């Protein structure tokens, strides 16, 4: 039996699902990292800089948000 070859990718943050919650999480995380690093530059925080992160959102559907109304039945 042939083995399946899978593609791999190293990421810092993986968000599963590109619905409203997944996309909002990715955007907010990026904003929080940027704000943290900005506060360090302005010397308002005493912490380490968070390096640039690879934030990846994966979705099983063909398009982002395709399953936003999954399970919703309207008559």
Q: Structural class of the helix and strand makeup?
A: alpha+beta
Task: Kindly provide the radius of gyration, computed on alpha-carbon positions and rounded to a whole number of angstroms.
Answer: 18 Å
**Helicity range:** 25-40%
Strand order in the largest sheet: 1-2
* Gross morphology: flat
Note the beta-strand portion. Answer: 5-15%
Return the string of H and E elements.
Answer: EHE
Report the sheet with the most strands, covering strand number, pairing sense and barrel closure. Answer: 2 strands, parallel
Question: Helical stretch count?
Answer: 1
Through-space gap between termini: 48 Å
Weakly predicted, low-confidence segments: none
How confident overall, as mean pLDDT?
86
Number of strands: 2
């Amino acid at each position: 039996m042939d083995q399946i070859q899978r593609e791999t990718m190293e990421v810092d943050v993986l968000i599963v699902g590109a619905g409203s919650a997944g996309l909002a999480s990715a955007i907010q995380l990026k904003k929080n990292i940027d704000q943290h690093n900005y506060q360090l530059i302005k010397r308002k925080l005493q912490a380490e800089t968070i390096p640039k992160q690879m934030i990846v959102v994966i979705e099983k559907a063909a398009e982002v948000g395709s399953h936003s109304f999954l399970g919703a039945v309207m008559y």
